[in-house]
Amino acid sequence: MSEQVPNSQLPVSLEITGLQTPVQFLRGVGPHRAILLKNLNIHTVGDLLLHVPHEIHDFSCIRSVPQLQDDQLQAVHGVVVDRDARELRGGRSLVGVLLNCEGHFVRGTWFNQPWIFRKYTHGQRLIFQGKPQR
User: Fold this and answer.
1) Which pLDDT belongs to residue 80?
2) How crowded is residue 2: how many other Cβ atoms within 10 Å of its Cβ?
3) In this structure, CATH architecture of domain 65-130
4) pLDDT digits over 7-66, tens only?
5) Nearest to 96 by CA among 45, 105, 8, 104
6) Strand, coil or helix: what is 38?
7) DSSP run (H or E) holding 98
8) 42 and 17 in contact (C-beta within 8 Å)?
9) Residue 75 CB coordination number (10 Å)
10) Of 9, 18, 94, 130, which alpha carbon lies 20 to 30 A from 76's?
11) Which of 71, 17, 72 is nearest to 45 (CA)?
12) Measured CA distances, 85 to 77, 79, 114 (Å)
């Protein structure tokens, strides 16, 4: 029967190898990104490997506009033909992006995210996912 050695007696290099390695020591992570990961309760490589996203977005079933059903999560694809941004009362903003989906039109709307206006440009191909309302 082998004798177990307490962690305090192991060489430092053995204590921080493998799944117990702090994420900040992974290439491309560093201390700043490690703080962001800590907010997700990810402290070690093992935590990172076992982290499961809250939602999984399935884009495999893209529908045409006539097939869309109200208030169900679905996806459509199309080309940006128009976009607009408006300031609302109280310093809030409203951004809209209009897609041409094979002759049918779908409008995506974002509240208080003005950067969306700069992100999407005329002629860009996009997939919108959400719960459509007529």
Assistant:
1) 98
2) 4
3) Beta Barrel (2.40)
4) 555 555 545 568 888 999 999 999 999 999 999 999 999 899 888 877 777 778 899 999
5) 105
6) helix
7) strand 93-101
8) no
9) 16
10) 94
11) 17
12) 21, 18, 7
Give the pLDDT confidence of 56-92 residue by residue, as tens digits.
Answer: 777 788 999 999 999 888 999 999 999 999 999 999 9
pLDDT at position 6 is 56
Contacts of 34 (CB under 8 A, 6+ apart): 22, 23, 24
Specify whether the CB–CB gap between 75 and 112 falls below 8 A: no
- The boundaries of every CATH 2.40.50.140 domain in the chain are 65-130
- Both tokens of 122, joined, read 């005329």
63 φ, ψ (degrees, to nearest 5): -100, 160
Location of structure tokens 């060489």: 11
Residue positions counted in the chain: 134
Residue 127 corresponds to which tokens in the numbers above? 């997939």
